[in-house]
Amino acid sequence: MKNTEQTRNKTRNRHEIWKCLGLFLLLPTAYCLLTVFTGCSKKSGQVLARVGSEKITVEEFEKLLANESYALRDYLSTEVGQRQYLDALVKEKVALVAARKQGIHKRPDIKKQLSELEKRLEENYRRMKDKILTDAIIEQKIALGDSDVEKYYEEHKEEFENPTELKVSHILLGSRGDAENVLARIKKGESFSKLAKEVSIDKMTASKGGDLGFFGRREYVKEFEDAAFKLKKNGDISDVVETPLGYHIIKLVDKRRLKAQKMEDVEMQIRRVLQKEKVDKWMEDASEKYKPKINEKLFETIAKGPSRQIAEQEKK
Description:
12% strand; four-stranded antiparallel beta sheet; 3 domains; alpha+beta; two-stranded antiparallel sheet; 58% helix; Chitinase A, domain 3
């Protein structure tokens, strides 16, 4: 905790230092595609400013401008704005040269920070490369035709012509045993809302007694949705429902009818459903082929499971 606070203080101090120097630069958004230029300048390789061995080329200057915050775009498209931006960059280079001349980079604490930064950058670079590949293959697998959407609409026409929304509360547990125990307590008369606040591991809803508000079809995972829509009367409570998130107990609070939905109204919703189904099926087949393995014993040593959280709460 002490080291974390020291790091925060150092960061705050750095921010104050740059404010004093009059630097209004924001951290460039690395992947922003918006640009205030129409193409690369023929002068891109020329040196725009130099401070000792440090230099700012036209190309670097233009890229930094292009990646700057959208809120500054109009100002930075003016000569005055670009002059102030360049002055700020020059001041940054002056500070950098001064730091190197004084051997700041050789200090043990700075060397440690630079080493940690290098590791983070390497890890982020690897993750970014992996993401490009995974995004590409998933985009390939979720390709759909208009006929797929139309077919789904016709197969679920009753749901779209007479749509219903439910208001439910739920309690989410980490194991079936915990869920069965909580369900038994509810059946004995304990308050659903009170138990949700005490034991649900869904912290977003626990404080509200498990309230999820109103939702319609295709908004939650299928197992949860199917169980919720089987409840008939307000106050009905489901059996334990298993989903990829854990084990739920669902209580129906209210129902309401909505107006009929035409296909053009729900086309994007249908596409998302079909794309998820395709990805899930492909992932199931791919996992069967490549057989991923998890060291469960090791995982148990590094993760504080929901079951232990509940046990600790019940002891209090």
